[in-house]
Structure formats: C-alpha cells, structure tokens
Design brief:
Helix content: over 70%
Distance between the termini: 30 Å
Order of helices and strands: HHHH
Number of helices: 4
Largest sheet: none
Structural class: mainly alpha
Number of strands: 0
Length: 106
C-alpha cells in the first residue's frame, strides 16, 4: 500500500519506471527476435540494440544532470536559510499565503 502512495506522490518516479519497463520489454523483444528471425533481420536487430543502448546512455546522462542540479540547488537553499533564517521564514510564509489564496479561489 505504501508503494502506491509513494508512486502517486512522485510523478517523475512513475516516468522513470515506465521508461525502465519500456527498455526491459524492448530488450526482451530483441532477444526473442534473435531466436525466431532469419539472418536477414540481423542488421535490424543490431540497429535496434544500438538505438536502445543510446537511449539508455542518454537517460543516464539526463538523470545524472538532474541529480547534480538538485544537489546544487539544495546546497544553495541550505546556505541561504542558514545565512538568512528570518528572511527564509518570511519568504516561506509569503509563498504559503499566496498558495493559500490561489487554492481558496478554486
């Protein structure tokens, strides 16, 4: 039950899971093709494997960039809050107030 709550709370993890599932299914399809298709399909199979390797590489690079940026922003936020605690409290209160107003309108 907890995994459903966590998955619904984090849409990016749902996308990551979907991408991983897609890649896994594609790899299974490639393996099945290798045992069932004649030699003529060997080139197509090799190209598909290359495409999926490229997708995995790009996904890994994008994931690393997101993690790095998130860490950078978290460090900047931590530094700001430690250097300006009252300003951070005021800013958070103002943002909370504005969000409350926006939610109340609906």
């Amino acid at each position: 039950m907890e995994t459903n709550d966590a998955a619904s709370a984090n849409p990016s993890s749902n996308r990551e899971k979907s991408i991983r599932d897609l890649l896994r299914d594609a790899e299974e399809l490639i393996r099945a093709m290798g045992s069932q298709v004649a030699d003529k399909a060997g080139d197509t199979r090799a190209r598909l494997e290359g495409v999926f390797k490229e997708i995995k590489n790009r996904y890994a690079v994008a994931e690393a960039m997101v993690v790095d940026r998130t860490k950078e922003y978290a460090e900047k936020t931590d530094t700001f809050v430690r250097e300006n605690p009252w300003r951070a409290v005021g800013l958070a209160s103002g943002i909370g107030f504005l969000l409350g107003l926006l939610c109340a309108r609906r």
